[in-house]
Amino acid sequence: MAVLFLLFLLVVSGVSADEDAFIGVNIGTALSDMPNPTQVVALLKAQNIRHVRLYDADRAMLLALANTGIRVTVSVPNEQLLGIGQSNATAANWVSRNVIAHVPATNITGIAVGSEVLTTLPNAAPVLLSALKFIHSALVASNLDDQIKVSTPHSSSIILDSFPPSQAFFNRTWDPVMVPLIKFLQSTGSYFMLNVYPYYDYMQSNGVIPLDYALFRPLPPNKEAVDANTLLHYTNVFDAIVDAAYFAMSYINFTNVPIVVTESGWPSKGDSSEPDATVENANTYNSNLIRHVLNNTGTPKHPGIAVSTYIYELYNEDIRPGPVSEKNWGLFDSNGVPVYILHLTGAGTVLANDTTNQTFCVAKEGADPKMLQAALDWACGPGRVDCSILLQGQPCNEPDNVVAHSTYAFNAYFQRMAKSPGTCDFKGVATITTTDPSHGSCIFPGSAGRNGTFTNTTSLAPSSNSTSSDSPPLYLYSASSFTIPVIMAALLMSAVFL
């Protein structure tokens, strides 16, 4: 297994384009069978995860993280906030026990003071800033303030009128807290912590936000959201929320405090009221999020500026209260088995949970047969997949139906394109699986096959110097009156699939 999570902790005094973004993970503990700290750290090391955020400062966990080099953000739980915010001595004692006792062996680089305090614990808001200052003072006294930054995570719901981003502003009720708080972050070279959940924005939009826009899927230019005030184009919800926070800060005259996203993700399972909490969507969101962050794409307002992000979360937390989705945000189950395989081949860095990287593209269960036929015709035509193996008498002809044949064609295209992002979608009728769809003598590209060696998928593609006359013909599954218009539709859609 090898998930490569890079790279460098954001330690800045202002918004800068000179630093690389990193991806980290949050580690929750609401599991009925929580792995012990040694097991957790073993998983982190096996996955090469270099940045983690803890929701507390558990001593055993911090000891297990010692001498690993993993950069750790520890947290002051909300229930301890009032005591720390009212007493400098209490704050100093907390830092002594939970930070100073563990550095430098444990690479603590951040302290998150509380979590979404303004929206979940408003009675503690008056002491939030003093808690930050008291914690920071204790770090200064120990000469750790350059190494360890202090901040507090906010819910994105504190931002009002978040679209268009240029009109966003913080809930003015919190101005007496927010203005001095951001001034503190600015003066200490820290960053604004923001929790960004496009899943909830999508769910609460009543259909206004398209699913593709929430999942970072490619959008045609006419479907992009445009901020009429700045003419900036937004292709995903994540960027729009981050920029809304930047604009909200600029509204109160702060323009050089960087944002770190302390939580973002997508649930892999939900109840009947959450039909889009699926393994496929969770995979798509997190794969695209990781690629987007690590490519240092930045946002439309700040292109190229790092937006380092912690994925929520490492494990599925089966004893969390609430709906089914609350228990299913994890990348792994409690045994360290991946919930799904991240697909990031071709992102400049390969991030995957599976050492064999044996993944396949198949027809989605319940997909519209007409859409499958259109996509099949495209794959075997403009997609340049050799579909002769599907003809009568050939190894993959049976079962002779559009689902089986499109599965072969989809996978052949997916493997030929080196499993690049977006090459297993086909207008939403394809999905990725780790189950080898090979059967009998029909060995799919990418399969280990019967002799244990991988199929040479490059042979599926015509050579680069092939002429148009060498291209395989469109594969016609049936001779119904539907076939001709489907072929036309497939040709028209070819630019979209490519």
What does it look like?
Helix 12 (369-380) packs across helix 13. The chain folds into two domains: 19-332, Alpha-Beta Barrel (TIM Barrel), CATH 3.20.20.80; 360-433, no CATH class. The chain is of the alpha/beta class. The protein is built from 14 helices and 15 strands. It starts with 22 loop residues before the first strand and ends with a helix. It is globular, with a radius of gyration of 25 Å. The longest helix is centred in the first third of the chain and has 17 residues, at 125-141. Strand 1, helix 1 (37-46) and strand 2 form a beta-alpha-beta unit. Belongs to the glycosyl hydrolase 17 family. It is found in: Cell membrane. It is a lipid-anchor; GPI-anchor. The chain crosses the membrane at residues 474-497. It is an enzyme of class 3 (hydrolase).
The biggest sheet, with number of strands, parallel, antiparallel or mixed sense and barrel status, is: 9 strands, parallel
Question: Which fold name fills CATH's third level, the topology of the largest domain?
Answer: TIM Barrel
Number of helices: 14
| Strand residue content | 5-15%
The number of distinct β-strands equals 15
CATH superfamily name of the largest domain?
Glycosidases
Q: How would you classify the helix and strand content by structural class?
A: alpha/beta
